[in-house]
Each structure stands twice: as C-alpha cells, then as structure tokens.
Write a structure and sequence with these properties.
The structure is a single chain. The protein is an all-alpha fold. The protein has one domain. About 60% of the residues lie in helices and about 0% in strands. The longest helix has 18 residues. The protein is flat, with a radius of gyration of 23 Å.
Length: about 90
Amino acid sequence: MDTKTRRWTLRVTPAQDTIVRQVLNNSGMSLSEYVVSRAVASAVQDLADRQVFAVSKEDWETLQEVLQRPATAKPRIAALLAEDSALDSE
C-alpha cells in the first residue's frame, strides 16, 4: 500500500457535513476514508466518460487500419445472440 503523503483541506456547509456524517454513522468508515473513496471513484468515472482521447499518430493509424478491415462472419457469436438471455425470461 502506498504511504499517504498528501493532505486535502475542505470546507463544507453544516448541511453538507450533516448528510455525510449520517452516512458515516451507518458505514463504519472514517470521514477521510469515505471522502477519498468517493472522490477517487468519481474521478475514475469522469476519466472513463471523457469523449476526447489523445493518441499518437502511430496508434491512430493502427486504429484506422483495424476499422477499415472487412467484417467477418462470427457464427458462434451469432448463435449466442440468437438465444434468449436470462434477462428476457419473466
């Protein structure tokens, strides 16, 4: 595990503090654990949701080559998709 060497100082309203502390009372987490875990999870999601990604010219050209390849039939995938899924049953 990495050693924690950075510190965050945050200001919140009394209402924000009350809401977070209500969660803490039920979770067993410390304030630091909760805030850091939620901030990191949110940051990971925000990065995943980015719509613009920078790639090298070589990687872009490789992607373009892959996208230009003709489609090939995948009979096993077609058969799998033709079956009812567990989500289809009632």
